[in-house]
Amino acid sequence: MRKRIVAGNWKMNTTLAEGMELTKSVIEKSITVPKTIELVLIPPFTSINEITKLTKGTAVKVGAQNCAEWVKGAYTGEVSATMISSIGATYVVIGHSERREFFNEDNKMLYRKIKQALENRLIPIYCCGEKLNERESNKYFEVVEKQVSESLFELTKEQMMQVVIAYEPVWAIGTGKNATSQQAQDMHAFIRTTIAKKFGKEVADSISILYGGSCKPSNAEEIFARPDVDGGLIGGASLVADDFIAIACSF
Ligand code: PEP
Fold this sequence. Notes:
12 helices, 45% helix, alpha/beta
């Protein structure tokens, strides 16, 4: 069975003290979450070290929101995958739409980041998804196929099997307007078929594809019930422990 994952992307929110409180609360409440669901907290860089210490000995995993495309060196302000791995994080989000939009990250750069992540035993959560105009002009499959092929198709089969994909339609992120469960299922199935054509059915069937975009306790159950939806990448709702846990209990 594919791994089911509910990951909370805190974005540029939470001081260290706030992040520690939120983590403690999530750990406490996580006893209600089925053991088959992997919970991942993705705080800002400044809190990762302390939060990995807090989660040690629990089933809760920790990730980073980004990593550099380079190994090390004169790249002021960047954080390498090696550094992230060295403080106990096990996941890293790559290519979130906010990074594509505000920091001009493109598919080829994201391929290099994914390679860095994999070389440092981090699980990349590779984000893809179309903008509103691309949805409205029926270009969404084309756009996502390009994102997936340009960032993932140079990986080996073994590397591809380590990658988690998050389908996040940009028009649904932080807008309160989620994709319908049918829209999510259709795109997830399309992504899986795209992966299968390149890497084979076995690889495609083994990778987790998460949905992200205004996922909340009131809509998670319906979305997660779809066969190709293996969990969620949660933004706003992950900042409230009760909501995050309720979403994780929606499987
Ligand atoms: C996200 O930023 O990855 C996200 C899904 O945000 P939200 O849940 O707030 O729409």
